[in-house]
Structures are given as structure tokens and as C-alpha cells.
Amino acid sequence: MRNYKFEKWETFVNYTLIVCILFLISCGEVKEKDPEEIILARIGDVTISLGEFMRRSEMTIRPPYCSGDNNLHKKIVINSLIAEKMLALEAGEDNDLAYRLADAGGTLRFVPSARVAHFHSARLRPYLRTQMWHGFWRVKLYRKHPRRAPGGDQYAGLADLFAPPLLIVIIGLFALQLLAIPRFAMVAACGGAVAVLAVVYAALRLPTALRLYRRTGDRRMLFFTDFALLRDAARAIGMMRGFWHFTIRRKATY
What we know:
mainly alpha, two-stranded antiparallel sheet
């Protein structure tokens, strides 16, 4: 009986030792490092990796002019990816491309069924930072295509085009009014101009708020003017920076 118990205990100990040894071996196993991604092209801070090239070329349907497997068609694909990354470095790049195509005599075709996904931050500060850069690059866009500026476009209509500069003028006149407090005549003149321009600004923004309210039935849309004021302020800052960069310093607009 004692020998049976001893053998049973010995078997338990042996199994326990085997499990412990296997556990230690598995913990001590060195995992191989993942191979570094192969970079095919670098555009600014953005890169095109071999993995992205394979996903965008080999795993998707390509148009007939580059559907082959020869080097020429592969160059077309990689050049298309490079052009995509270059255009994404600036805002308003699609407008620039459309203007250049139209000026060259090309025809633009709109596909209503096409879906394009845009990422917009849900936080206020990143969103306003993005709007500031939109204002910055808009100056470059209209420096390159000055005859397009008066009419705007479907993305940035007349209200979006003129509201930020108008806000700059209102803020400037208000600051001048504060500085001219000892001179009553100048204060009255600046105050009157601020009041008139404020009415013009409201006339530019209120129709959008009313249109959003009629479309959604949500009364909160009536406060769109408050949100638009912040957005226009951010775009105005960007426009001033763009004016300094592209007009005063005359940086390249190509």
C-alpha cells in the first residue's frame, strides 16, 4: 500500500516537473522580429510601402490602361500613388486639379453615385486647426487661379469665401475703435462700420442655419452661426498667414 502511494506521488511530481519545464521553455522562446517594411517612395512625411503598393495594385481592380503585369503598368500605379500623396499634402488640391484640367480644355464628369470618405475630427481644436490650413491653402489656390476667386466653387461658395476676410475687417475695426476711445468721432465711425459689417456677416451666415434647420428639423441647427463664427475665425487666421506667405514673401505657388 505504501509503495502504491509512493509511486502515485512520484508520478504526480514527475508530471509537475515536466509541465514546469515546458512552461519555462515556452517563456524563454525568442520570437523573431517582424521584418522592416520596405519603403518604395517618400513624399514629405508620408511614405509608400511595398505593402501599400501590393494592396492598392495587386489586390484591387485596376483600370485597363494599367491592368497588366509588366513594368510599365507597375510604374503607372506607383506614379499614381505618388501623385495622390503629393496632392494630399495641401488643401484645395482637388480644386487646383479641376481648374487646371478645365483651363487645358478638358471635360470634368461628375459621378453622383460615387462615395468619398472624409475624416473630420470630432474635437473642436483639431477641427479648427484643419480649417486654419484650409484658409492658408485657399490663398495659394486663388493666387494660382485668380479669375476663379470672385465666384468661389461648390465647396467654398461666396459666403465661405467672403465671410473670413469680412471677419478680419470687423475685428480690425473693433480694435481700432478701442484704440480711438479719446476721439469720439473716430469711435462713432468705427462703431457704425462694425455694426453694418456685422449685419452683412449675419446675412451671409443665417441662410445656411435656416437651410440646415429646414432639412433636419433640429432647432440646434439655428445656432450654426456661432459655430460658423469660430470656423471663419480659424480660416481668417489661415488666410492672413497665407497672404503673408504667398503674397508678401512671394513663395512659390506651383
